[in-house]
């Protein structure tokens, strides 16, 4: 593969990852706005009208969980996850790349396990119902496998870009030499 082909492929991968991140951002903003409105409505109903709406706590909790899980996908796209680089950066560049590929592969394995167990959790939660809203708990739990898929896609795309850029000095993800 020529350098020009690698650059075009890398640009296309970034476009796909950016579209996924943009849509995820929109989801986070919308769900965050819903959470804010529901919490404000709950506070006003409880303290101003002296007539609490019990369903607001359940909806706000679900919205916060969904926002957090969607936010993890955005963090994966930006490589915002926690990493300890001190010792890795002391290694030769070739070993740094091997360690990075190994740890990235471990992350993909973890995400696969998250997706599989998330699906099991969604299936198991079909019999559980939220008391105030009557929502089947499968719906709130659906974010676990969904975010796992989003994170796996984003992480896979970031890994692919890393592999395509190995050996180039312009790589933003290249470990320090």
Automatic annotation (TrEMBL):
Residue ranges of domain Tripartite ATP-independent periplasmic transporters DctQ component in the record: 35-162
Keyword Hydrolase attributed: no
GO biological process: C4-dicarboxylate transport
Subcellular localization: Cell inner membrane
GO cellular component terms attached to this protein's record: plasma membrane
Pfam families listed in its UniProt record: DctQ
Keywords: Cell inner membrane, Cell membrane, Membrane, Transmembrane, Transmembrane helix, Transport
Record membrane topology: Multi-pass membrane protein
Membrane-crossing segments per the record: 20-47, 59-76, 106-127, 139-161
Domain of life: Bacteria
An example molecular function term from Gene Ontology annotations: transmembrane transporter activity
InterPro entries documented for this protein: DctQ, TRAP_DctQ
Family recorded in the similarity comment: Belongs to the TRAP transporter small permease family.
Protein name in the entry: TRAP transporter small permease subunit
Originating organism: candidate division KSB3 bacterium
Organism phylogeny: Bacteria, candidate division KSB3
